[in-house]
Design brief:
It is a single chain. By secondary structure, this protein is an alpha/beta fold. It has one domain: NAD(P)-binding Rossmann-like Domain (Rossmann fold). Helices cover about 35% and strands about 20% of the residues. It contains ten helices and 13 strands. It has a seven-stranded parallel beta sheet with strand order 3-2-1-4-5-7-11, with helices on both faces. It has a two-stranded parallel ribbon with strand order 6-13. A two-stranded parallel sheet has the order 8-10. α2 (about 80-105) runs parallel beside α3 (about 140-150). It is globular. InterPro entries: DUF1731, Epimerase_deHydtase, NAD(P)-bd_dom_sf, SDR39U1. Pfam families: DUF1731, Epimerase. Belongs to the NAD(P)-dependent epimerase/dehydratase family. SDR39U1 subfamily.
Length: about 300
C-alpha cells in the first residue's frame, strides 16, 4: 500500500515507518522541509504546511493516511500558552490532512488519526472501553474530543476513520518510562501519589503494530484503544519495575510535591483511567507483550 504519514519523524512515527517498510508498504512522509532528509528507498518526503506546498501534486495514489502530528503533551508545564499550542497544533495538522484528502482525486481508503485515552477523563473505579463516554471534563478530554471531531470530517469523502486512542507508550529511550527509571537507578524509587491510580500502558512494539492493524482491518471504525489488555495500578507498576531492575521500592513521592513541580501536567502521573482495548481483543489482535512483567523485561533489556 501507499501510506502517507504526518508526524513520521516523531517518537512513534519513526518506528511505525520502519515497521511499515518491513511489511512492504511505500511511505510518504509529510514534512515542512524535505531537504536533508535521510534517504530510504521506500520513503519519499513531501512538503506541506507552508503556503507554496501542494502535497497533492506528488500523491497520485494514496491507500491510507496516518496522522501523528501534534505538540508533545509531556515536554513542559501546561501554561496557558502551551495548552493553546497543544490543542492548536493538533487541530491545524488535522485540518491540513482533511484539506489534502479533499484535493486528492483518488481518495484514501482510511485515515488513522492518533488520539489519546485522555478522552475518558480520570477515575479510580470506572473501567473504560471504546463505547465509554468521558467521566469528566478536563483539558485532555477537551483536546481529544475536538481533535477527533476534526478527523471525523474525512468520512464525508467516503474515508474510513479510526481514532487510535493511545495509552502510556513504554519505550526504553523516549517517553514516560525513560523518566520513571531515574529514581530507581539512584535506589530511591517508590509510589507516585497514592499509588492507586490506574496506568493504561502499551509496549512501543505493540503500539506501532496496532496502528498497522487499524490500517489493514477494514471493519475497525471510530475509537480504537491502543493499550495493553492488563492495565495496572501505579503501585503494581512501580513494584514490577523495581523487581525487574532489582531495586528497592519504598521512597514515596507525595501528590502535593508533584503538583508543585509539574502543575496541571501532574495529572499525567497522579490521575489515571483503567482502559480496556475491547476492539483489539474482539478482533483477535495478537499482543507481543500483553502483561506488564513481559513488557518491562523486554524493554529494560534494550
Amino acid at each position: 500500500m501507499n501510506v502517507v504519514i504526518a508526524g513520521g519523524t516523531g517518537f512513534i512515527g519513526k518506528k511505525l515507518t520502519d515497521l511499515l517498510i518491513k511489511q512492504g508498504h511505500s511511505i510518504f512522509i509529510l514534512t515542512r522541509d524535505a531537504s536533508n532528509k535521510p534517504v530510504k528507498s521506500s520513503v519519499q518526503y513531501i512538503e506541506w504546511l507552508h503556503k507554496d506546498a501542494k502535497p497533492e501534486e506528488n500523491l497520485d495514489q494514496v491507500d491510507a493516511v496516518i496522522n501523528l502530528a501534534g505538540e508533545s503533551i509531556g515536554s513542559g508545564r501546561w501554561t496557558h500558552q502551551r495548552k493553546k499550542k497543544i490543542l492548536q497544533s493538533r487541530l491545524d495538522s488535522t485540518r491540513a490532512i482533511i484539506n489534502l484528502i479533499e484535493q486528492l482525486s483518488n481518495k484514501p481508503k482510511v485515515l488513522v488519526n492518533a488520539s489519546a485515552i485522555g478522552f475518558y477523563g480520570n477515575s479510580l473505579n470506572k473501567t473504560f472501553t471504546e463505547r465509554s463516554e468521558p467521566s469528566e471534563n478536563n483539558f485532555l478530554s477537551e483536546v481529544v474530543t475536538k481533535w477527533e471531531n476534526e478527523a471525523e470530517k474525512a468520512s464525508k469523502y467516503g474515508v474510513r476513520v479510526v481514532f487510535c486512542r493511545l495509552g502510556v507508550v513504554l519505550d526504553p529511550n523516549e517517553g514516560a518510562l525513560n523518566r520513571m527509571l531515574l529514581p530507581y537507578q539512584f535506589f530511591i524509587g517508590g509510589p507516585l501519589g497514592t499509588g492507586k491510580q490506574w496506568l493504561s500502558w502499551i509496549h512501543i512494539d505493540d503500539a506501532i503494530r496496532m496502528f498497522s492493524f487499524a490500517v489493514c482491518q477494514s471493519d475497525i471504525v471510530g475509537a480504537f484503544n491502543v493499550t495493553a489488555p492488563s492495565p495496572s495500578q501505579m503501585n503494581e507498576f512501580g513494584k514490577t519495575l523495581a523487581g525487574v531492575l532489582k531495586r528497592p521500592y519504598y521512597f514515596p513521592t507525595p501528590s502535593f510535591a508533584l503538583r508543585l513541580l509539574l502543575g496541571e501536567m501532574s495529572t499525567l502521573v497522579l490521575d489515571g483511567q483503567k482502559v480496556i482495548p475491547q476492539k483489539a481483543i474482539s478482533q483477535n489482535y495478537s499482543y507481543l507483550f500483553p502483561t506488564l512483567p513481559s513488557a518491562l523485561e523486554d524493554l529494560l533489556k534494550k
